Amino acid sequence: MFLEAFDLTGKVAIFVGGSGGLGKTISLGLAKAGANVIPVSRSKQRNEEVVKEIEASGVQSLLTTVDVTREEEVQRLVEEVMSKFGRIDILINAAGINYKKPVIELTVAEWDHVIAVNLKGTFLCCKLVGEKMLAQNYGKIVNIASLGSHLGITRSAAYCASKGAVLQLTKVLAAEWASHGINVNCISPGYFKTALNEKMLSEKETYDKIMNRTPMQRLGVPEDLVGATVFLCSDAAKFITGTTIEVDGGFLSMAL
Ligand SMILES: NC(=O)c1ccc[n+]([C@@H]2O[C@H](COP(=O)([O-])OP(=O)(O)OC[C@H]3O[C@@H](n4cnc5c(N)ncnc54)[C@H](OP(=O)(O)O)[C@@H]3O)[C@@H](O)[C@H]2O)c1
Q: How far apart are the C-alpha atoms of 143 and 122, rounded to whole Å?
């Protein structure tokens, strides 16, 4: 059947940030597509809730945690998943933080923290999971970028710098690993209401500005990201690498 190419049955997916505001819904979407999904972040409790829902949907999971800024923790995560499943087919990198303030007020510690989670964390996960994917000659990596990868968002200097770099890192990995059966792509979400930006989106002036620039005239909901993620993780996208799918209601397409 034609849709078989989208089927993820039996695939093993590490989802970093997979119990977060966007991550939880996408984790469950990957599980519905047949993948065994391991949602990880620092919070064991949040991961556990999602692990239970994933297992209830009939696929396997694993309860563990990771702080992506720490190489030894990412290494431990990779070994835990390898010892239970013997392979890692899919990696989603969605751990992300921001300190929403003007450059002049952003401390060096805050800058370092954002770069450590959003950029170094993505690098570490790609590198350490990538080693296993290279050995099996198969892998799908999806890095969650942002509008801030493409545009300068005020009060988000470290965030935009990190997300712009994630886009570039994705292209380099795509080029280096294309001949080893590994696809590396990004998804750039537009504005979605989660813990990350709840405060900003509740400012009426900011919200109105965003709506005026969004052709579809609404915020995204996490379900909007499931189709693009399943697609990029599937063999339906096997000739696609080093690119980004913008899931933003048209935001990046409109000048006025
Ligand atoms: N919401 C939007 O409108 C939007 C738009 C564009 C891009 N994005 C991107 O989408 C991704 C998910 O964001 P979200 O909106 O779902 O926000 P969220 O609910 O705050 O999720 C962020 C995730 O990152 C994890 N995380 C933070 N620091 C971590 C660390 N050191 N190690 C491991 N995990 C860590 C969090 O889990 P713990 O705190 O438990 O560790 C959480 O699972 C982020 O990369 C974000 O930049 C979001």
A: 7
